[in-house]
Specification:
The protein starts with a helix and ends with a helix. It has 346 residues and is mainly α. It folds into four domains: 4-48; 73-175, Type II secretion system, protein E, N-terminal domain (GMP Synthetase, Chain A, domain 3, 2-Layer Sandwich); 189-247; 254-345, GMP Synthetase, Chain A, domain 3 (2-Layer Sandwich). The longest helix has 27 residues, at 319-345. The protein has helices spanning 4-15, 21-34, 38-45, 50-61, 75-80, 83-89, 111-121, 132-144, 159-165, 195-201, 207-220, 224-230, 236-247, 269-274, 297-306, 319-345, and strands spanning 73-74, 91-97, 100-105, 124-129, 149-150, 278-282, 286-291, 311-316.
Length: 346
Amino acid sequence: MPKKIDLMLAEALVARGLVAQEQMDLFLQEADGSGEGLQSALLTRGIVGEKDILTVLAGKLRIPYVQLKELTVEQAVLDKIPIKIATYYGFVPLGIRGRVLSIAVAAPLEVRARDEIRIQSGYEIETMLAEQSDIADVLEKWRSGGMHIVPQIDVSPRKEAATKVAQEVIMPAETIPWAPKEPPRSQFNKEKKFLGEILIEKGLLTAEQLALALGEQGTTKEFLGTIVVKKGWVKEKELLTALSERFNLPLVDLRATRIDWDMLQYFSSSLIFDDHCIPFARDERCVTMAISNPLEAWTIKRAEEESKGFELKLALASREDIDGAIKRYQTYMQQKLKIICQKKST
């Protein structure tokens, strides 16, 4: 019988269209028979990227997904956690708050392993997920003395924000990106009118409707555009035109745009499926990504981080258009996976 966490991961990956159901059933059988676990089985065969798996698990288990590329750790943490224990169990200590030790692991810990770490370290354990290669790199730097260390700082990270968005978590406090950065301002107008002003000027909204929408916004915390569209006062296409003017972003029709589907595999499935972002073009310098709401600062910050050195350019598309592109991407991935499985079976 497959493990509960394997069934949860399988269901999520199938729901996102990254693996077909009939193929996933075979992988579950193989993982259960070999005892290696579904995560390891998928990674060994190159079926799904590790980042996709970890972001899925982070969302399902409600724990942060950590990127360790530029790890900063307090000296006090290293003094209290022997490197032999960290190496044996394959984790990176990130911080200590009271009696709680935060660690990064490449896969959710089993109860026995968690208890052993707790007993040997003397701390309650809080886990976060990170890529195996990143953990190996950090442990090697730790052993060789090449890891970036800072003096001890009293830190109280806002775990709730990390759990909600599965964002990068790096300690200490000055490197924790809790406050979202502004979206890429190079594309935005220097002097901007408020969205409500633009809608009124275009005759799409009355002053009375704007006042009602702003009052509701104070209670629901929804975006103004979401409220006026939901009430039927403004059509989504009209809202996109206003947002395009407000943020100086081009409108794009993804149905009429050639999308490099292979490029999407360099971005996490969470960014695509959960945040509804579609990177559709790339050159030597830039990645161009379609979004439906330029006010989603967390989403845009995440997209910038995942662009990995490329300049991020934004374009606006309707939510319906983006959802349609996601479905086409799912179909493309399912067809590609079938070809891979056929080649491996011959």
